[in-house]
Amino acid sequence: MGSSKIEQVCFEILKRYPQKRSALLPLLHVVQEERGYLTAGALEEVATLLEMRPADVWETASFYTMFHFRPIGRCHIEVCHNLSCTLLGAESLLEHLRERLQIRDGETTPDGRFSLGRAECLAACDAAPVVQINGYHYGPLSRTQLEELLAAFERGEIPQAYRYQLRAAPPSSRSDREGDFEKVLHRNLRDANYDGSIEAYLARGGYQALTKALREHQPSQIIEIVKRSGLRGRGGAGFPTGVKWGFIPQDRPGPKYLLCNADEGEPGTFKDRELLERDPHQVIEGIIIASFAIRAETSYIYLRGEFLEAVTILEKALQEAYTKGFLGKNILGTGFDLNLYLHRAAGAYICGEETALIESLEGKRGEPRIRPPFPAVKGFYQSPTVVNNVETLANLPHIILRGPEWYTSIGTAKSTGTRILSVSGHVCFPGNYEVPLSATLRELIFEYAGGMRDGRKIKAIIPGGSSAPALTAEHLDVGLDFESLAAAGSMGGSGAVIVMDERTCMVKVGEVINRFYHHESCGQCTQCREGTAWLHKILKRIEEGRGRMADLEVLTDVCRNMQGQTICVLSDSAAMPTESYLRYFREEFEAHIQQGRCPFSE
Amino acid sequence: MSQHTQNLPTVTIDGQQVQVAPGTTIIQAGEQLGIEIPHYCYHPGLPIEGVCRMCLVEVEKAPKLMIACATPVTEGMVVHTRTPHVEAARRGVLEFYLLNHPLDCPICDKGGECPLQDYTMRYGPGASRTIEDKIHRDKHRTIGPHIVFDAERCILCTRCVRFCRDIVGTGELGVGYRGDRAEIVLFPGKELDNQYSGNVIDLCPVGALTSKGYRFKSRPWDLVKHVESTCPACSRGCSIVLDVRHLREGGEEVLRVRPRFNPEVNGYWMCDEGRFDAYPRRGQTALHAPLVRQGQAQVPVAWDEAISVLVDHLREIISQHGPGAIGGLLSTWLTIEELYATRMFLREVLQTPHVDYHVDPVEVREADEGEDHLLRRTDKSPNTQGARFLDIGPGQAGLGIQQMLQAATTGSLKGLLLFEVDPTESALGEELERAVDRLDLLAIWTVRQSSATSRAHLVLPALGYAEKEGTIINFAGQIQRLRKAVEPEGKILSLGEILGQVAIGLHGSRILWTPEETWQRLAREHPAFAEIQYESIGPLGIPIPDSR
To answer: Omega before A129 cis (within 30°)?
Structure first.
């Protein structure tokens, strides 16, 4: 692409944002797609177009893992090595690739055909082990199947076999049974004939909630309804959504923004991705309702950069919604205007943290901000902003249509409604399951996910994404609601339930999740930058049989020094689960140290 | 308690109460009480970043430790800075910092004045518990004309980044990559090259950004004197500290120049020209003795001889042509006291009306503007305001600069005295060149030789800016003191003393030459200086009463 073409694309992208630098990540994606990688010259060109300082472009670009500053192979293979994939054989795939391609991770074959890399959780854990090839996700894969794929890519194809997006709904032992709990968010997408188009969505009553919201309610009434519904954020923190909206100053002139957090990245979580890919209009309708409630006239979907296929799906859905008059000027003749744009991120887990997301949307490094001020007061470009998770927003049409009382009748008193739980690991049927929050871990694992593979015993359960402290088989009867999980010493978090059987090495689990936090720490705060790396190094050393008894005390101390002291909770997210592994499985750590090897390795 | 202070929040820190302005942060309130809250990323001149997490303190009723740099005090807030919880957090941060720090303190410029060392002594863990390999990064990479970067020592406080981005506005630096791979970066192929880059050396709380010139020259404890003075590099007059060390071969030198906080003048900063160039150039005289022309050559002579040569020449000219055949040009590099004494010498001792000042090196007298949004001024001399306040200029029927030179060319001016005016740097040079052959006396006071001095009958070494006491007035009317930091090499007489001796030689009369005496007279003669005594001009200077 010539410079003038980039200028033209840039011109189009710039229309979406209040300030030029927001266009940075989208524009870098465009340039990289055209040229393969980003040269200093290209970065400077982008800096000029966006009237940014070159150093600002460079520091931002280098923060995100999806940008390359050197040529990469024509076939770029990235193996997910996060927890769910490691549990199911990711390392075997990596070893195979290293041997076959004769390169190490991060390298490119001399002929420029292949690059090998490792990816963090790709939000496809029900298909573990997952491999990303040229942006497309495949899984579960054996070595042979991987070979098939590489051959096809070599022929210039984009193979359809093993494609993640094309998988069937999970063959749950319970979810499709008659008499099962009525699905709310999964109502449409669990229907094999549902294609996610606006026609299909409308045919099932879609956008009726929007009509009702806009025609029958004032924004303040919608906030009230959502407060009464007890809806809590589904991204991780579980903060009441209506209360969050209530912090938006109503009388202040100037823009307000609603940002849909579609940066799903908490290891083990893949629920938002399914909602976006299979029923995008449900999310879009929720976004429009939320925007109306907080009087936002511009909204963005901040989409995880690795969700390549969701880009196409969402762009189509947005176009449909504009065409039908659900977006744009004077929506449904009510005088409400809303522009909703898709913003593709570029590979950084921390951008799922709401203030990091805002920074990233402003074209900066994804570094969380100090609060106060909270985004509701000073968010995107210092304007009042609400950041809501995909699943949270998808609940809104249902709450508006069926009323808050209906919603509170599901779940528990403090954790109302349903929740989609992403179950992965050593279960028979990994997948997303929508359950009322009154269900228990036992029901989820044994009745929905089909129990343990090969009838093995449960060793550990991570109930809310990799940041959540582990539970054990003793905790199977703990409820899935926020309070019960907290009382059991863990948390509901992102709703990712990773189940591990008796053969699992908990030191390895610790190494894998701390490798992740080490990789993803933004690096601002000292405790997190240094602590995540230190935990990872110590755990890796113990796993490799080079541990010392003194390490256990150091680990405990480091975990303590990492908690409650940083701008955001990434540091705590590494320390809390690590502490839990030491608490429940200390003898495994000691065995590694005493034997000088991993007792679980063959 | 006055009405005004009743609305101000009162905060208690470690049992001590203080009332502070609204918006004051805990760290600032602590400073007011003299309670040290250790910190790295916080700097009062920079936007808050809140990332080093060193300043965590316990605030009663807060669920977690709070960062003192970003937490404003509220009425009744109770803060504790020495609890076990706080001390454990500090130990933790320091342990984290030291994990990958190279600990090359023995060869680090910062060693001895390093907050990482100091806080580790005061608050840190006594022993290291890591056995992991340290991360290796770029060391001693020159990243600009003045700065050397050591990425291994960096603790990522981002002070340097914020300084370039938010204070200078050039933004050469950023933080690249992330996590423990994060590093201070420049855009590939670019340099840290702005007019204020040297400030990052002072800002850096470790030895990650060091001065190319000062690097490995000295240990901080070899710097035996830290003299509070004023920068002469432009009409801003930034408050500075001159760090002086003894030389092995005897004598002493100004090895390092740093800015000194002065809210009225320069805030926390100074420019690179003042820091790196002004002192080698103007700080210490390069001449060790007076020079007298003998034929084509200039030969060093003792002061007595130089003064008697000068006296003889002056007496000769006055007796043959009258005092109107002598003119004096005063540089705006002279101090108030030197300007005053010199004018008095010219007007009262020599009795010539031909007195003028020359703004050196800027040509246009009235053009002193801000060169940028920060500190630098277009008038690159320190005391033009002083010359203006003293109303230096021709007396009745006196000649100005141009007329004096014309008069010299036509032969009616026989003696020209240049007081630190260096004609080679300006258009004066050419005119002087035309006039010089017709002059009976060209005497130049100067700190260094130039092509112009080589034409002089008499070259008199002048004290450099680090070698003398005195006052100057900056563009905004702030009177500030110069402090003597080093002894000149060789015997250099002050201008006042020379003129005094010449006066005695000519008339047997003495004129004043100490700053104190000058200020006593100034206060009587110039209403602007009426209230001011020399001793009352503190380290931050004082504004001339009617200048605002």
So the answer is: yes
In the block, tokens 């999806």 appear at A66
For residue A443, CA distances in Å to A450, A470, A475, A491 come to 10, 18, 12, 18
Nearest one of B144, B222, B132 to B190, comparing CA atoms: B144
Q: Are A353 and A520 in contact (CB under 8 A)?
A: no
Contact with chain A for residue B51, Cβ under 8 A: yes
Q: Which residues of A touch B177 (CB under 8 A)?
A: 62-63, 523
Assess A360–B contact: CB distance below 8 Å, yes or no: no
Separation of alpha carbons A322 and A328, rounded Å: 6
Per-residue model confidence as pLDDT tens for chain B (548 residues): 444 566 899 999 999 999 999 999 999 999 999 999 999 999 999 999 999 999 999 999 999 999 999 999 999 999 999 999 999 999 999 999 999 999 999 999 999 999 999 999 999 998 999 999 999 999 999 999 999 999 999 999 999 999 999 999 999 999 999 999 999 999 999 999 999 999 999 999 999 999 999 999 999 999 999 999 999 999 999 999 999 999 888 888 899 999 999 999 999 999 999 999 887 666 677 888 999 999 889 999 999 999 999 999 999 999 999 999 999 999 999 999 999 999 999 999 999 999 999 887 655 556 788 999 999 999 999 999 999 999 999 988 899 988 999 999 999 999 999 999 887 766 677 888 888 888 999 999 998 888 888 889 999 999 999 999 999 999 999 999 999 999 988 889 999 899 999 999 998 877 766 777 788 888 888 877 887 888 889 999 999 876 44
Edge-first strand listing for the sheet containing B441-446: B297-300, B291-294, B458-461, B441-446, B415-419, B326-331, B355-358
Distance, in Å, from the CA atom of A458 to the CA atom of A502, rounded to the nearest integer, reads: 6
How many whole angstroms separate alpha carbon B148 and alpha carbon B143?
6
Instruction: Give the span between the Cα atoms of B83 and B104, in whole angstroms.
Output: 32
Which of A56, A521, A566 has its CB closest to that of B174? A56
Cα A389 from Cα B251, distance rounded (Å): 71
In sequence order, which residues have a C-beta less than 8 Å from that of residue B224 and are 6 or more positions away? Answer: B244, B245, B246, B252
Answer yes or no: do A54 and B56 touch at CB < 8 A: no
A interface test, pick of B132, B133, B180 with most A CB neighbours within 10 Å: B180
Helix axes B336-344, B515-525, angle to 10 degrees: 70
Gap between the Cα atoms of B505 and B354, Å rounded:
21
Residue type, A238: G
Containing H/E element for A227? helix A219-229
Give every CB contact of residue B459 below 8 A, 6+ residues apart in sequence: B287, B290, B291, B298, B443, B444, B446, B449, B453
B37-65 burial code (b ≥16 CB/10 A, e <16) = bbbbbbbebbebbbbbbbbbbbbeeeeeb
Determine whether B367 is exposed, middle or buried from the number of CB atoms within 10 Å of its CB (0-12, 13-18, 19+): exposed
Whole-number Å distance between alpha carbons of B130 and A519: 20
Q: Cα separation of B520 and B388, whole Å?
A: 19
8 Å CB contact between A111 and A163: no
In this complex, do B174 and A561 lie within 8 Å of one another by their Cβ atoms?
A: no
The whole-angstrom separation of Cα A6 and Cα A216 is: 45
The DSSP secondary structure of B13-68, one letter per residue, reads ETTEEEE--TT-BHHHHHHHHT-----SS--TTS-----S-TTEEEETT-SS-EET
Torsion of CA B359, B361, B364, B368, to 10 degrees: -80
Q: Which residue has the tokens 């002193």?
A: B368
- Contact yes or no for B48 and A527 at CB 8 A: no
What's the sign of the alpha-carbon dihedral A295, A300, A302, A306? positive
Q: Output the six-digit token pair for A248.
A: 């938006």
How close A154 comes to chain B (CA, Å)? Answer: 32
